[in-house]
What does this fold into?
Amino acid sequence: MNLNLRHAKTGLLGALALCFLVTLFSKFINPYWLYILYDIGINIILAVSLNLINGYTGQFSLGHAGFMAVGAYTAGVITNQFGQLNAFASGGVFLGALLAGGLMAAVAGLLVGIPTLRLKGDYLAIVTLGFGEIIRVILQNVDSVGGARGYSVMHGWTNFFWTFGLAAVTVYVIASLVNSTYGRGFIAVHDDEIAAEAMGINTTKYKVSAFVIGAFFAGIAGGLYAHSKQYITPGGFGFMQSIAFVVMVILGGMGNTVGVILAAILLTLLPEGLRFLAGVQQIPGVAKMYPLSWVGDTRMIIYSLLLIVLMLTRPQGLFAFKKRQR
Amino acid sequence: MTELLQQLINGLALGSILALIALGYTMVYGILRFINFAHGDVFMLGAFAGFYLAPKIATFVPLPSVAGALIIFGLSMVICAALGVLIERLAYKPLRKRPKLTVLITAIGVSLFLEYAGQFFFGASNKKFPDILPTWPVTKVLSLSVNSNQLIVLAVTLLLLLGLRFIVMKTRMGRAMRAVSFNPEAAALMGVNTDVVISFTFALGSALAAAAGILYAINYPSIDPLMGIMPGLKAFVAAVLGGIGNLPGAALGGIIIGVTETLVSGYISSTYRDAIAFAILIVILLVKPSGLLGKKEVEKV
Amino acid sequence: MALLQLDKATIRFGGLTAVSELDLAIGNTDLIGLIGPNGAGKTTAFNLITGVYQPTSGQISFNGQSIVGSKPYLITARGIARTFQNIRLFASLSVFDNVRAVFHLHLRGDVRHALWRGRGYHEEEASIANRVIELLEIFQLAKYRDEPAKSLSYGDQRRLEIVRALAAQPKLLLLDEPAAGMNATEKVELTRLIRFIRDKFQISILLVEHDMQLVMGICERIAVLDYGVKIAEGTPDEVRRNPKVIAAYLGE
It folds into this structure.
């Protein structure tokens, strides 16, 4: 499945306009669902950006939550310097803070990308995991942002427009990039580094760019997350979070943007669905009581078993209906 | 000076435990070239096996006692060895010809499964590990307080290392393991049953992890289903540090990580403790990716 | 002046001297063969020229400039492209994209064009697409343009690898055992193809090959390696009659 990019720019502008419209009516949406929608948008940004690193370029990062943390704290610290602002000013400050978070995360991505160049596969995975953990431990030791206790973000500026508008931008940027002649280099690096190098592709540059661009968007997502939850802790960006993003990419089919978006939606809704199931006392149409409360306790077990079964039966991902052909 | 020696002893005890876990990583990597991400959770299961066995054993052997502790050690090791073999058969064996990444992700899945299943069956909260070994006050040598349990850790680790060395160097199975590690295809052609060797490797590694789990629980007597994550990762780092696939390297790496970590938390800041292993990992991969005692592998063009 | 000049190029791996003091000069539109028994150092010589390995000593220059120490991708950008003994295509990319990926070398715009997607970008992409198709058509591969590269037949994969190398617009093309695994008819076809490439694209070709008949048939000059040392160089007839070459092949 591939995005048709012929009218990509028109599509992006349309998506932004639509997001703006929805935002105007968002007060009619149940807040519980609204926040789940924000989670979906944020996870789409994270999964699609990680897909550039893990899917298209064939690297294996297990540290995406670390980049997200950098963005979350940076943006949070910046907006906390401001008091109450009118809608227009807050929008400008928020966008600036998100971009700053993205840039800081991109710098972190550069720092991770360069030393990991020589590494492949599982070594790379474990080192990126290590980098993510180091970021977490450092944040735990910075008292000015609350250390391990966490950090309060004053402004709840994340809304439908920013979340899905930026998700649309992320998808647009990454899809445009990998579908260009320049961007085919990412996939060439994924397929065969030695051949890519022999074909004039600067594999070093491509790999580091993938890390930097991926980290940038993870940082943006972190900023959105911080201004949605309004309370962030270093522990919330541990490697279990990184694994969750990796699972989205795998489930969607590595290097398949549409699949990864679907997977991000599905995996954000899954816990909610299971939580709902856990509250069911009786199956409709069945007289006997079947309380499903056990679902609540076993949902993570089910999740992990699904991952194993998926790898054993459909390692190419759930949404990879067709081989990659472009 | 006393303080330093004290920290070194603490570090050695922690390092020995990491070394035992690291051996399992390194053996599996040596043979299958993949990181068994779930290995740290087998370590956790070892501790829980001991936890649940202790009351049962106590009905016929009084606890704490050396005999009782030995039984618990042995049984836990056997249980985890069986579990290790089971995990390999069910989750990894079907993937042997697949890309390494698929196997790695499966291993992450197995790790998550063991952790969540552990939380479901054992409960998520911390549990106090029972006293299975009699403790005796160790005389203060040079005003050092050496806990008897720490000595036990060192002694048991040493014994297990010697036992492992014997198995790998002197037995038929050990020879087969080395052959498969060197060249699996050639070993198979020469009549080595690689499936059996792989199972045996998992059994051996898991048994050592179980022993490490109990030693850990004796020393830091609070256990929980997520206790394997950090020691598991650090032990992996130890294996890389020593040169992955290299048994003495794994033991050495474990000791180095354990001692460094203890020194850093003793002298600099305990909150940076968890970052030490990863910092070491990054440095070693930059400076000498093949590890302290490892050999270099080159890709053929 | 020669296009490519190797001057006492030597590489040692530990105690083994894989290529020893190799002198080789390739001029414009030369068609030169590099032969030798198994393990003679032919592929190693290729890896030296393309920057995969760095010489332990000696000099390699291309177009009069030293390329020792250059990264492989920079050497390709300067005009040396290669194929691999064991085909290394971009397996998950389509036939079209395998070739297109190489065109990034000739892009005028940078990443910003790809992101802005303005008219300049679309025009450039369209012109690249035309050139890719043109190349594929020359080699009768255009009909497979959307197939994944790995689904092609063996012979087609070899040809696609050559097309991909040509997309780099090299001045020197290195072919590493292009006839490996081909049957007699395919080899005849390959011979025709190699000559055609040289004449059509006006480039030099250095050919590593096991198949003596093929090499003798098309190369104007042949260098023979044995145990990393060049034991002979000359026209096919000279090499064929050289007692050292006969000894090396028959294995004294």
